[in-house]
Amino acid sequence: MTKKLHKSGVTAAAGVQAAGIHAGFKKRKKDMALLYFPDGATVAGVFTKNKVKAAPVQYDQQVLQQHDRFKAILINSGNANACTGKQGKADVEETVKLLSTELNIQPEEVLVSSTGVIGMFMNMETMKKGVKAIAPEVSEFGGAAASKAIMTTDTVPKEVSFTFEVAGKTATIGGMVKGSGMIHPNLGTMLGYITTDVAISQAALHAMLLKAADATFNHATIDGDTSTNDSVFVAATGKLDNQLISSADDAGYAEVEAAVLSICSQLAQLLVKDGEGATKFVEVLVSGAKTVADAVSIGKSVATSSLVKTAMFGEDANWGRVITAAGYADTEYFDADVIDIAFSSKNGEIQLCEAGMGVVFDEELAKKILEADEINILIDLHLGTEAASTWTCDFSYDYVKINADYRS
């Protein structure tokens, strides 16, 4: 029986091809991916705010300021090309030239991403062989292979795609993301690639991505570490042949903005669910805040607390750790004497703290609630009407094991 091929993830949208191969940066698994836009695509990106930026991040930031149309994005896994000085920058430039020659496109039409170990020089012989091998492999059915090739400590590939309506036409958006550890994004996050067939300007795409990343990826945390390589790209091929969207006043802008927000939200939650060693997905829902900023700050403070995360792993209803983390968040408005805290899951909901003080609760029910693989920490500040969610995971023994010998 012939295996049916599927267009998935980044290749779900028209005008996008992809491939994923084993080039040799890692011992056995796929470690090189290529996104190819034969007729070009408008691309926007957001990147890490870490003051230590990898060579490919620096290159991409510069070239995106100079150009808006691209034909290829090359990604390697296994080497971050970060903290590699002038040699790292030279290696990016050489990689760009290698791929542009292989695809017969201009060097300025190429973007590059890397992920993996920090502080190692790129093996350019492996890069050369990989570029030659991957270029002929691109196809509209290569999305799944590409999503596997960008993985590092990820346990599963992460890709999403769906259709939506734009000015009476059916548009498609798809994406893939990698990340399992060193996840506490700021602006962009990990490595993420989103594609759509909509015709839209770079400025409009960038505005949408900034807003979406801030509302989704920036609300996801695994371990509190912001990477040197965090990058998210959105590429629009224009194959839908809609009237070009250039500003928020244009027809279709709101629909595309909603789609970008939705796919970023889905991809961000997939990241957290695959956190290194994670056994539980945890959503911290802060309500009753005076400002959105306060709700976000408290949510992130609780979500990044090692003591809260280990309590989730141990299935211990230790609400004291939650209120403590809320208390040291950077907030403008806070009153410990009015806070309510509850835990919930598919197994029920239980109130643990009322008006800043503990209440008598059923320990067996609390344990049952925390046995679920998806848990909500509910914090009501009783100070206003604003709310925000932050996604995180528990800390297990495996997180330490994975990161104790990451370089090997």
Attribute tags:
32% helix; cytoplasm; alpha+beta; 408 residues; Arginine biosynthesis bifunctional protein ArgJ; single chain; Arg_biosynth_ArgJ; EC 2.3.1.1; multifunctional enzyme
How would you explain this protein's 3D organization?
By secondary structure, the chain is an alpha+beta fold. It contains eleven helices and 14 strands. The chain has helices spanning 55-66, 85-103, 124-134, 143-149, 202-215, 253-273, 292-304, 306-314, 319-327, 363-370, 397-404; strands spanning 17-21, 32-47, 69-79, 110-117, 158-166, 169-178, 191-196, 231-236, 281-289, 340-345, 348-354, 357-358, 374-380, 386-393. Strand 5 and strand 6 (169-178) form a beta hairpin. The longest helix has 21 residues, at 253-273. The radius of gyration is 22 Å and the shape is globular. It starts with 16 loop residues before the first strand and ends with a helix. Its EC number is 2.3.1.35, 2.3.1.1.
Short structural description:
With 408 residues, the protein is of the alpha+beta class. The chain has eleven helices and 14 strands.
Number of continuous helical runs: 11
Q: Tell me the span between the first and last alpha carbons.
A: 41 Å
Give the SSE order as H and E letters: EEHEHEHHEEEHEHEHHHEEEHEEH
Low-pLDDT windows of residues:
none
Largest sheet: 8 strands, mixed
Strand content is 25-35%
Which overall shape is indicated by the principal axes computed on the Cα atoms?
globular
Radius of gyration: 22 Å
Structural class by secondary-structure content: alpha+beta
Average pLDDT confidence is 91
What is the percent of helical residues? Answer: 25-40%
Please report the total strand number as a whole number.
14
Pfam families: ArgJ
Keywords: Acyltransferase, Amino-acid biosynthesis, Arginine biosynthesis, Autocatalytic cleavage, Cytoplasm, Multifunctional enzyme, Transferase
Active site: 189
Pathway: Amino-acid biosynthesis; L-arginine biosynthesis; N(2)-acetyl-L-ornithine from L-glutamate: step 1/4; Amino-acid biosynthesis; L-arginine biosynthesis; L-ornithine and N-acetyl-L-glutamate from L-glutamate and N(2)-acetyl-L-ornithine (cyclic): step 1/1
